Known about the structure:
Blueprint: E1 4-7, H1 13-24, E2 28-33, H2 36-46, E3 51-55, H3 61-72, E4 80-83, H4 100-126, E5 132-136, H5 151-171, E6 177-181, H6 199-211, E7 221-223, E8 226-227
Parallel strand pairs: 1-2, 1-4, 2-3, 4-5, 5-6, 6-7
Antiparallel strand pairs: 7-8
Amino acid sequence: MPGIALVTGANRGIGLEVARQLAAKQWRVFLSGRSLDSIERAAVSLSASSVTPVVLDVTDQESIDRAVKAIAQTVDHLDILVNNAGILDDNDDSVLNLPVDRLRRMFETNTIGPLLVTQAFVPLLRKSAAARIINITSGVGRLTDMGSAVPAYGISKTALNGVTGKFAAALKSAGIAVNAVDPGWVRTEMGGSEAPRSVEQGADTIVWLATEAPQSMTGLFIRDRKPIPW
């Protein structure tokens, strides 16, 4: 049954594709990003009346609060929160000479941002009969298979996996499912043109988890619709 979803960082790439697929399933989708112009263009590109653009900068608490207020004035609950907004500004540096300011920037958006957004939207999620929170992470953040590439990005995603686990435990009694999804290496502005996966493939597990997966699935790291080791 169609529901109500919020997708952060949805003006392009995987986030926009998730919004497109949900809208195609007749879901009401709040499509968010930092720039009003970019999210309005993205919403228009979907040609779906069920998509609403909302300005939301995940690094700005006031912006988050305004987004909560705007959405709460329109709907009485939220079924799905997809924490997709993220940045990758690593270069070829090793962790041995990683500038700490780069790590801080990555944490602000990739780790702290999803934490703040989730905290802010939990009251609306609690009003859903079957709410789900989906954090978009990355295989480079896996402790069981960690390489040396993109250290700041990888560390921020490892921390996001920790955030996912903590929220899953805290919200289990409320029946809210919280999971992390690795979409794989996807052909987006962030992933680059040589990535092996299309945006449709990258969005598949996210949309499945939002719409079809068992509500009992929670506290998991998921790739291609299957749990994988953290």
